[in-house]
What does this fold into?
Amino acid sequence: MKLHIMGILLVGTVATVVAPAAFAQSSPPSAERGRSLFQQKCQPCHGTEPSDMGHAMLPGTDALRIKYRGALPAAIEQRKDLTPEAIKVYVRRGTWSMPPFRKTELSDGDIADIAAWIRKTAGG
Amino acid sequence: MITRREILGSSIAVPAAGLAALSTAAAPIVAAAADAGAQVLPPGVTAAQFAQALREFESAIGKDWVLSSEEDVHPYRDHFSMLKDQPDELRPSAAVCPASVEEVQAVVRVANRHRIPLYAISTGKNFAYGGPAPNVRGSVTVDLKRMNRIIEVDERRHTALVEPGVSYMDFYRHLQERDLKVWVDTADVGWGGLMGNALERGCGYTMGPYRDHFSAHCGMEIVLPNGELMRTGMGALPGSKAWQDYKHGFGPDPSGLFAQGNFGIVVKMGFRLMPRPEHWRTGLITVPRRRDFLALVDVVNYLSDLFVIGEPLYSSPLTRLLGDATFRKAAIDFDEATMDRIAAANKIHSWQVELQFYGSEKTTLANWEWAKELILRAVPDANCFDGESLKVPVTQAQIEQNTRPYPAPYVSVMRRNVMHGVPKLYMWRSPGRTDDAPDTWNETHIGLFSVVSRSGEAVFDAQKAFADVARKARAGTEYVSSLLTPLNWHQSCFLIGNSFFGTSTRNDNSPEGKIRQLKELQQVLKLNAQAGYGDYRAPPILQDDVADQYSFNNHILRRFNETLKDAVDPNGILSPGRGGIWPKTHRKLRGGLRK
It folds into this structure.
């Protein structure tokens, strides 16, 4: 039997999903935390694995392939040109079919961590 | 180099601070439309009163989680609004983000003191149906995303209890990490949440009782408009262990009031989960003639209602023949004899349905054999093709579905992730760039579907009715509706899309084009109702139009709901207008959009 009932003492430790850490920005931004956040929040659309039904790319990656036509990488983890500030504008304002994300979904600190991860993976 | 326009798209105004941060050439800043930066207030509330309310919200839940700057409130607007940046865009004035039931109660009490309309969201991803945006411009959004606990999952009773902020992806990750042998039926786009989607009466793809997401709920905890806490079903009995086992409790069950309604803020919700099967099998059935669809639907209904199959996927390959002028004319004229003759000459069947079976390897095979027997009994020249036969859980490669289970030219249209309760964002390519249209996107992504009775005859009737509606709504329209195929998302009915002219403004994203689309959809909804068809769901911008469809006995249903609304929410603070239900405090706003 696997019955998972969270007692009061466990609340927030076992089954609370990634929660934005208010607005405090980790100092310095953590690429490792950014990796986890990227996997949960960005990768489902901007990852590098195939999509379904014969599509070679996930929707966000495919949209950037169409947009840049090879001038820039389609995968944002390979983008050297994305500054933390630019990433924050994309996330908070949305762009084209990508809707904006709220502070309850990604805090400013989370975005900085994701930017650090992208910088690391892109070799920037 | 990235230009500002590339970053921002065509219609988004950005705070100067955000733009200054971008290392970009001095491309002209996108001209902000008239409404983009304007302060928005709740109706009838002065700036001073609003400022006081914000201070009290801050006292209740903390300053960090009361968001009122343009930058912070922007993500609470509908990214796909047909009225984007217009003076009547349905956008909030601020957002509050409580982290507990007690904080939700405190927010409601502040709103009552200052007559501030609230609009509650859970994950805020209800795109195609208004996203996080409210029914009343200037509402304060209650963002429940921080309440994100998965309180219980029981793989023996197949139940769960969750808070509003839990997304399908969060929940799936929870199941995976613990190897829990249950599935949740997921929405197409997995960033949505269990609770919000169920309260929207969203639907999915697995077995009938689970893919009707509201029907799969079992027990709610609700903050009422006066701030009191209520539980439905067995949750109303202190100490009951059966809250997620029996949804009705005793006496009248008000649960339905909270779906597409505005009678309370649901802060916990129970669900029945589908046990993970051992095996998944698919099969394709084709029938040659147009009229064979009637028998096909009867057989599939029989199998569905005996819970033998999951969602069946109907389609017609005859769309391939629309380039043939004779066939096209026959399809427009519902000339069935000619359609059948040309289909036969081209060796193309008229209809197909792809079936899916959940169970063990042996039971799924036996059920598929039975399905074949039933259809061949009804339509002797039907064809049946074995599809996939996969051990569950399937692999990622199997989900990506690059195999072709049927012999050419037969194609599987099943998207396997949703058939297996695996939330993904695969479907999110639909509003975005395409290779065919690389420089535009669908800025008004919207879904509208009419409920149609679940028989072949009813589908044929609807096809003719919708062709007539299309002609009336836009003179000169030649709508080839005879190939419309029904969706069986909800087990008990069909849904057919209202996208007569396309629910996309991809070809005209101008403000005028979007408003033209809005007016056209309003007209379509009105004409549909005259033909006897109503929609199952709508964005706030069209909810009054859909509510108008349900007008039996001088709108007694709406009058009944509004009598209840005025009784439980006398200040009209909770999501006024949602579901077409307007409290007396805001009733004058009914139907006020672009009429």
Q: What stands out?
A: Residues 53 and 65 of chain A are 18 Å apart (CA to CA). Residues 1-14 of chain A have pLDDT under 50 and may be disordered. The longest strand of chain A covers residues 3-5. Chain A is about 40% helix and 0% strand.
